[in-house]
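Hypothesis: this fold can be encoded by more than one sequence.
Test: take the structure tokens below, design a sequence, compare later.
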């Protein structure tokens, strides 16, 4: 919902938590990788860059 509302700060935080769960092996109803990529492309700012970098790192490890 946060992505649809274009509330990218909230979307980035939620996606970071989803990436953490994904990295821990918790089965999720969706893949967080496309969300991370979408937020990276559509949003800007230091905090968003940090949240998406953390999420990206969690997904790729």
């Amino acid at each position: 919902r946060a992505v649809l509302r274009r509330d990218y700060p909230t979307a980035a935080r939620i996606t970071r938590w989803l990436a953490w769960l994904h990295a821990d092996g918790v089965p999720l109803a969706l893949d967080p990788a496309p969300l991370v990529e979408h937020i990276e492309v559509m949003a800007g700012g230091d905090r968003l860059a940090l949240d998406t970098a953390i999420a990206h790192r969690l997904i790729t490890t």
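The radius of gyration is 11 Å. DSSP finds three helices and no strands in the chain.
Hypothesis status: open.
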